[in-house]
Each structure stands twice: as C-alpha cells, then as structure tokens.
Design brief:
alpha+beta, 5-stranded mixed sheet, 4-stranded mixed sheet
Amino acid sequence: DKVKATATLHEWQTQALASADTSNAVLEGDDAVTNAATATVRLGNICQISDKVPRVSGTQQAVEHAGRGNEMDYQISLKMQELKIDMESIIFGTNQIKATGAAATARNLASILTWIATNDSFDSGGSSPSPIDGTDARNDGTQRAFQESQLKTVLQSCWTEGGKPDTIAAGGFNKQVFSTFTGRSTPTEDAKSKKIVASVDVYEGDFGTQKVMACRNIRTRDVLVLDMDMWALATLRNMKMKDLAVTGDSQRVQILTEYTLEARNEKSSG
C-alpha cells in the first residue's frame, strides 16, 4: 500500500481485538454492561532520504549517441530505476534499525526485518527484535537448510495471530528449494507443448494461498511470509528531479525521495 507521511517521524496506530470470551452470556432483559476498550498501540518510523545524481559532460550532451537521443534523459531514466532498487533493498533486504540522524548523520528508516518478531523461525543463536518498534535489529541464527516444515510452522503462527499472509518472498537459491517441496518435488513435462514445468508460483496450504516470488533484493538467508495489506510505503516527498548548479563543463541533476515503511501489524507476517 502507499500512504502519505506528514513529518520526518511518521506515526500510526495498531489495533488488536480482545481475546474471545467463551462466557459471553447475558440475562434476558438485563441492563447492558460496558466492555473495557481495547487500547491501541502507537508506533512510528523515521523517514529516510535517498537520491541519485547523474552527471553528463558538455561533450556527451553535444555528440550523437548510437541508439539514444539526449544523454542526460537517458541517465535520468537509469538513475530513477536504480533509486527504486535501492529503496526496495533498504526496506526488504537490510537488518537496519531506525535512526533520527544528526547534523553529519543521515536519518535511517527501520527495515522490515526489525519489525517482524512474533512469527519468527530461527536456528540456534537467533532472536527476534525486542522491543518490536524498529529500534532493535534481529540476531541471525546459525544458517540451515530451508524446509517446508519451517514454512508450515510460520504460516500456522501467522494464522493463530489473526494474519492472512498472501505473499512468500525468497532469494533465488531458496526459491529453487521451494520448488522441490511436497506436491511439486518432480518436474512435469507437457510433451505436446514441449514445455517442462519445474517451479512453484503459488503455495496452497492449510492456512490459505500465497503467491511465491523470487526477489533479488532480500537477503539470501531470509524467506519472508507477508500479509501485504499490513505494510505500506509512506512517502513524505515523492520522487522528484531538480537541476543542480553548473560548476564546470557538465550538467548535474538530483533525483530525490523521502520515505519510510509503515508496519501496520507485524503479527500478520513472519
């Protein structure tokens, strides 16, 4: 999802339902008794500034290039794509805690790994962030082989907490491992179309159906189980471009955005 941030500290509130009351029975005609309100939890994340600055010499602007016209326009297009890759890698592929910054220190947002804690699965030595507010990084456990039993445990934990994960993201290696899980351990061949199918793009288990995607920009050691409705990109300043002052025989343009991650309910993911 995409939302608008209004300050460098972007804040939101999370709401949980009260636990089930199995003794909820009232007398006929009895007076109503007010139930205690379930308090919300106020959370926040820091807006981080990221940019790219292409620079093109006067000569490169003047000469004709094979396959493209204006060199600066071409470089701007490249740098915009690179900036989006940086943003995705920062949000999904780092174990970065939030930092308010200082005069000589840039602000940092808290990445997704510092928010997910309730439905974690580690080997020995691993531990979840605590508190779950973007101020503490996770401790990585001893690396192990990715197994379907681990995925099932996390999916059940998400379901127990009320989550409905719809996406599973893995790096290239673990995406290939995923394609060997139960029900898809052997490639199939369609002789008529001359096509071999050896991948899994959808996982349908006891707790719902998830889209399985290979992601270049998460850490190779991680597999993320995400309820995408419970995460949002909050933008304080949309990606914009401005010309920088000319200091010599070249032209420079700054492409800049200010953004953060909104974790609406980490219990829905794992």
